[in-house]
Structures are given as structure tokens and as C-alpha cells.
UniProtKB/TrEMBL annotation, chain A:
IGPS catalyzes the conversion of PRFAR and glutamine to IGP, AICAR and glutamate. The HisF subunit catalyzes the cyclization activity that produces IGP and AICAR from PRFAR using the ammonia provided by the HisH subunit. Its EC number is 4.3.2.10. This is imidazole glycerol-phosphate synthase. Belongs to the HisA/HisF family. It catalyses: 5-[(5-phospho-1-deoxy-D-ribulos-1-ylimino)methylamino]-1-(5-phospho-beta-D-ribosyl)imidazole-4-carboxamide + L-glutamine = D-erythro-1-(imidazol-4-yl)glycerol 3-phosphate + 5-amino-1-(5-phospho-beta-D-ribosyl)imidazole-4-carboxamide + L-glutamate + H(+). InterPro entries: Aldolase_TIM, His_biosynth, HisF, IGPS_HisA/HisF, RibuloseP-bd_barrel. It comes from Pelagibaculum spongiae. One of its GO terms (biological process) is L-histidine biosynthetic process. It comes from the Bacteria.
UniProtKB/TrEMBL annotation, chain B:
Keywords: Transferase. The keyword Transferase applies. One of its GO terms (molecular function) is transferase activity. InterPro entries: N-acetyl_sugar_amidoTrfase (IPR020022). This is N-acetyl sugar amidotransferase. It comes from Pelagibaculum spongiae.
Length: 248, 379
């Protein structure tokens, strides 16, 4: 069994690191370089950096900010935000990103997933999917609305078939709540596909992260408890090991 | 870059929330001046204090002090207005200035007992190094010590009540849940004072936790046994930094002898540490695009002592954004680093979106004095 990864999720608004609640209320947490250096110190498995305003503002995540971060980032770095073309991807990989996360453009033009995977290799292409929970059901969420015409599970299968190397599931409903992740969602998605799945959203404690890691997911993405409590990635890995789950 | 429509604070300030184009702190200022029932809060405060107040034979509260105008005001007010018997506790800053020492002595001259907590300089220096190189904040351990040393003394001397100054989330902006808070605890420290780093992280850099005991927050058991309660004075009475300064000055407290600290607008803040006023604030400037003058001018606007237009002009005329060279050689010597290492680190922390840069290479563009060029300025 592969070791389960613990991945800090770092959101940017173009200028600063921030943390959202339900993708809405925002807290500005300062400098991306500071955050990266702390996670470098903590020797985390991987880092995901997403500019959540890039698509809305019709721009890509800033290449020089990525260059600055990648320069002494020891961890594999996944970067997302406003990526629309293979040129965008090439630029970010050149600046030091190891993988890219695609969300909006994958929904607008699913064939882009295939184009990107063919040019850069599937291992480099992460498709990020925002999910909301409603009445015990799960839906795709984009541009501030529920995409009712798109079935989540169908979309996930399609993303895999189109050639994505990894799927990042971001649970909007639990985003920033620190009230507990949705194990059921992690379980359903990770059983549905054979590519690696990262679950993100609502993790309340290292033990909760371990509960997610007990499903088939390959990684747990976490933000709030690292920003706002004394829990560290190492605590999460210890909690996983305590449950007999292989972690680094 | 978005600036508040009432004051001149940009949205890049950590923990600042904007609603309808107005920053949190300006919304708070409206509450502070027009909505909060301060008489009611004063009654509430008296009820609390009456449970702690002694007969003067023992200390009945702790005032965390730096010797600054706010903490001197807190000590004097708690004793003379509220009849308490305070013990003042100070955490020695990175490098105490002459005027900082004078002001600590001012407090003792006013009749206060003072306990000074100074961590060992060997490990402290390593934390300054971590702060400077990893967090973009040369005074990182100072921010922590200010909040742990008084709690440590509270636990050890069994003095449960601590009186802090203003609630900075209320006065200067922060998440809603923390703005109405009247107390300060360990999680507050973790959320707002530590730049996202934890003391457990310093072990990775070879600093043993046993060697930084003064910075470790007492554990829950110790805190609960004594019943440590940390209250914000600014929750119970209307906070006014000018009133604090005026009162202290009238009693012999010292402003900065050389005028405004580098990068600042006024001459009565951040006087105690060589690096907190100049360099720490400059590092804030390169990360977020605003410095101490902006902070101080915003306070003036919110207090109704200055218009936004006047503040913009004053900001233009201030030294905010200029590299504060005065005490930088001391820091380079202290950390045993070269000027290249020093400047290189500042460049790494400079927010590439906020300052002029070469569009091809990303290289920062500086003026002939080595200062960055802002792309944004409050209009």
C-alpha cells in the first residue's frame, strides 16, 4: 500500500495567502513565501497552491510568485489558478511547478485535459473539482453555482477517461469549517477511479485526517487547522500511523 | 490593490476583512464611537475586578508591559482608576533601545514593581534568525515572548488576572468571532502572533524546546489550576492611543528623541526595540505594501483627528517604504550575515505583485537609494 500523503492547501488571491469559509468569507493570512518556508521546515509531502481569483479576473496565477516559491521549495509543488492553455502550463512548469491543477477550463473545455496530458504527461495534470453537499447528495460547483446538469460521479469518471493523472476533490460545504471532513465523499470518489484522489475540506483534527486516509484516497489536503490551531502535518502523519495507515 | 474607502489601509493587511469597500477597523470605529454602551461595559468590568481586587498586600493583577505609552497607561489606570495592585511583567525585546530602558524605569519611578523576563540569548538569536529568514519577521520571538512571559508569571506567582491593552482584532481589524472577544488565550497567540509558525517547528532548525522555556505557553493544566484570565482593557473602556500618550508624557514618559522612528509617522510608538520599529515594519511593507506610517495614520483617521486626504499627503511625506538603515548593521552583526545575504532575503520576501519589477525576469526594480517602487498608493 502506498504511503498516504498530507498536503497543505495554500490559497492565494493574487497578493496574499488567504483562507476561505465555504468559498465565501475570507481571512487574509499574509505572505506566500512565509507559508512556503514554514511547510518546507515541516518537510511536508507536497504543497498545493491555488489562486482562487485568477479565473474570475481572467488572468493566470503570477509566474514570478511561483518562481519565488519554487526556488527553494523542497516539496513537489502543484499550482493552479486561471490555467487555460498548454502555454500557461509550460510557463508554470518552467518557473518550477511540478504539477498543475485545472478546474474552470476543464469544465469549459473537457478536451483540454487530454491535450494537456498528452503534452506534459498525465502525472503532471491534476483536475480539481469543487463539490457541494445538499440533502445527502453531492454536486459539482463552479462559478458560485451548483452545476445541476452535470452529474458529479459521471464527471469524475470522464475526467479520468480524458487522461487526468490525479483528482483533487474540494468540499465547498465544509471548506474552512474545521468541523469534520466527509468520509463518505472521500470513499465514493476514491473507489470510483483508479487514479490518485486528494480529498480536501473540513478536516477538524489529525485524527479526522486519519479517518479520511482510511478510505482509498491517496492524500488528504488540509488548510485551516494548520493555519489556526497548533496541529501540524506531522501530527496528522502520526495519527495515521497510529491507525496502522502507512504515512511518511 | 484595494484600499479602504475611509482610511488608507490596503486589503493586503493580514486578517483585514473588507465589507462594502470599508475595512473592518473602520467599521469597528463606528461601533466604538457611536454604538457600544461604554457605561455598561464599565459596570461589567467593575463586577469582574471586584472578584480579584485585594487589599494591596499582594499583587492582584498582572500588566504585561513594554514600557510603551499603552502599557504604561494600563498600569497607571489599573492602579489609580480601578484600585488594583498590579505587578508589571516585561519580556526583553530583541535589542532594547536607550529610550526603551528609560521608559521601563519611568514605570518603576511611578511606583510599579517590574519583573523582566529575558530568555537566554543563544537560543533567542536562533529564533531571530528563523524569524528573519523563514518568516520575514525579524522580531518573531519578541511577539511570542510578550504574550507568554506574563502568563508564565501568572501561573508561577498564582496571580490569575492579566490585563492586556486593546483587542487588536477589534481596533485594527480581524475575524468577526475574535473582534467581540474580551479575552486572550493560547489559541489567540497561535492565530495572530506567530506568522503561522509553531514553536514545535523550531526543533527542525535545531533549537530545543527546553532551551526556550520563556516562550512556551504554560500548559492547560497549569493555566486552569490558577484560573488564568486575560482581559482586554480596550473591551471595557474606549481605547484612545493619543489619550494614553498624553497622559504618560505629562508624567515624564519619553517619546523617541530622534523624532518618528524610521518608516513611521509619529514619534511615540515601537520605541523599545531597535528592530521592531524600523526593520520589522519594513519587512511588513515589502510583504504587504504598507508600513507603520499607514497604521498610525489610519488610527488618526478613525479617531477623527485627520481626514483621509490629509493622511494620504502625510503618507507621501513620511519615510514609509525606505530601507531603515539605522539599526540594520546591528542586526547583520548579531546574526553574522553579510549585506548581500541581508538584502537577498528581503528581496525574496518582497511581494512580486506589489512593487515594480522587470516583466521578463521578475527582477525587482529599485531607485537610486535601493528602495522599492510602489505600484499602488492610496488615492
Amino acid at each position: 500500500m502506498l504511503r498516504k500523503r498530507v498536503i497543505p492547501i495554500v490559497l492565494l488571491d493574487g497578493f496574499s495567502v488567504l483562507k476561505t469559509v465555504k468559498f465565501d468569507v475570507r481571512r487574509n493570512l499574509g505572505s506566500p513565501v512565509t507559508v512556503m518556508r514554514t511547510y518546507n521546515t515541516r518537510n511536508v509531502d507536497e504543497l498545493v497552491l491555488l489562486d482562487i481569483d485568477a479565473s474570475k479576473q481572467n488572468r493566470a496565477i503570477d509566474k514570478f510568485t511561483i518562481q519565488e516559491i519554487a526556488q527553494d521549495c523542497f516539496m513537489p509543488l502543484t499550482v493552479g489558478g486561471g490555467i487555460r492553455s498548454n502555454d500557461d502550463i509550460r510557463e508554470l512548469l518552467k518557473r518550477g511547478a511540478d504539477k498543475v491543477a485545472i478546474n474552470t477550463q476543464a469544465l469549459l473545455k473537457p478536451a483540454f485535459i487530454t491535450e494537456a496530458a498528452e503534452e506534459f504527461g498525465a502525472q503532471c495534470i491534476v483536475v480539481s473539482i469543487d463539490v457541494v453537499e445538499e440533502d445527502d447528495k453531492f454536486y459539482v460547483y463552479s462559478n458560485g453555482t451548483i452545476q445541476t446538469e452535470l452529474n458529479l460521479l459521471t464527471w469524475i469518471k470522464q475526467v479520468e477517461a480524458l487522461g487526468a493523472g490525479e483528482i483533487l476533490i474540494n468540499n465547498v460545504t465544509r471548506d474552512g469549517s474545521m468541523e469534520g471532513a466527509n468520509v463518505e465523499l472521500a470513499d465514493i470518489v476514491s473507489k470510483l477511479v483508479s487514479i490518485p484522489v486528494i480529498y480536501v475540506g473540513g478536516v477538524s483534527s489529525p485524527e479526522d485526517a486519519a479517518a479520511i486516509a482510511e478510505t482509498n484516497v491517496s492524500a488528504v489536503g488540509i488548510a485551516s487547522i494548520f493555519h489556526f490551531t497548533d496541529a501540524t502535518p506531522n501530527d496528522c502523519r502520526m495519527a495515521m500511523k497510529n491507525k496502522g495507515i502507512p504515512a511518511r | 490593490m484595494q484600499y479602504c474607502n475611509k482610511c488608507i489601509m490596503p486589503a493586503t493587511r493580514p486578517e483585514q476583512v473588507f465589507t462594502d469597500g470599508i475595512c473592518d477597523a473602520c467599521h469597528s470605529a463606528v461601533d466604538k464611537h457611536d454604538k457600544i454602551d461604554w457605561d455598561q461595559r464599565s459596570v461589567e468590568f467593575e463586577e469582574i475586578l471586584s472578584k480579584y481586587r485585594g487589599d494591596g498586600s499582594r499583587y492582584d493583577c498582572i500588566i504585561p508591559v513594554s514600557g510603551g505609552k499603552d502599557s504604561c497607561y494600563q498600569a497607571i489606570t489599573m492602579r489609580d482608576k480601578y484600585g488594583m495592585t498590579p505587578l508589571c511583567v516585561t519580556h526583553t525585546p530583541c535589542d532594547l533601545t536607550e529610550v526603551g530602558l528609560k521608559n521601563l524605569n519611568f514605570l518603576r519611578d511611578q511606583g510599579f514593581d517590574l519583573i523582566q523576563i529575558s530568555g537566554n540569548r543563544k537560543s533567542y538569536k536562533e529564533l531571530v534568525r528563523i524569524g528573519f529568514f523563514k518568516l520575514g519577521d525579524c522580531c518573531w520571538p519578541e511577539h511570542i515572548g510578550i504574550f507568554t512571559a506574563p502568563v508564565r508569571i501568572a501561573v508561577n506567582y498564582k496571580i490569575p488576572l492579566l490585563i492586556w491593552g486593546e483587542n487588536s482584532q477589534f481596533e485594527y481589524g480581524g475575524p468577526a468571532a475574535k473582534k467581540e472577544n474580551n479575552f486572550l488565550d493560547r489559541n489567540w497567540l497561535e492565530q495572530f502572533q506567530m506568522s503561522g509558525h509553531r514553536l514545535s517547528d523550531v526543533v527542525h532548525d535545531g533549537v530545543e524546546l527546553n532551551s526556550i522555556k520563556t516562550l512556551l505557553y504554560p500548559d492547560d493544566e497549569e493555566v486552569n489550576e490558577v484560573g488564568v484570565t486575560g482581559l482586554f482593557l480596550g473591551y471595557f473602556e474606549k481605547w484612545d492611543s493619543k489619550r494614553n500618550t498624553d497622559m504618560c508624557c505629562s508624567m515624564g514618559w519619553n517619546k523617541n528623541p530622534d523624532g518618528p522612528v524610521e518608516g513611521a509617522y509619529n514619534d511615540f510608538e515601537n520605541l523599545d526595540c531597535k528592530w521592531i520599529g524600523g526593520l520589522h515594519d519594513y519587512m511588513k511593507f515589502i510583504k504587504y505594501g504598507y508600513g507603520r506610517a499607514t497604521d498610525q495614520l489610519c488610527i488618526e483617521i478613525r479617531a477623527g483627528r485627520m481626514t483621509r486626504e490629509e493622511a494620504v499627503i502625510a503618507l507621501r511625506n513620511s519615510s514609509e517604504g525606505q530601507v531603515p538603515w539605522k539599526y540594520i548593521p546591528d542586526l547583520m552583526e548579531y546574526l553574522n550575515i553579510t549585506k548581500e545575504e541581508f538584502t537577498g532575503n528581503l528581496d525574496r520576501f518582497t511581494n512580486k505583485m506589489i512593487f515594480e519589477r522587470d516583466d521578463e525576469t521578475g527582477q525587482l526594480i529599485k531607485d537610486e537609494d535601493g528602495n522599492l517602487i510602489r505600484r499602488f498608493f492610496p488615492g
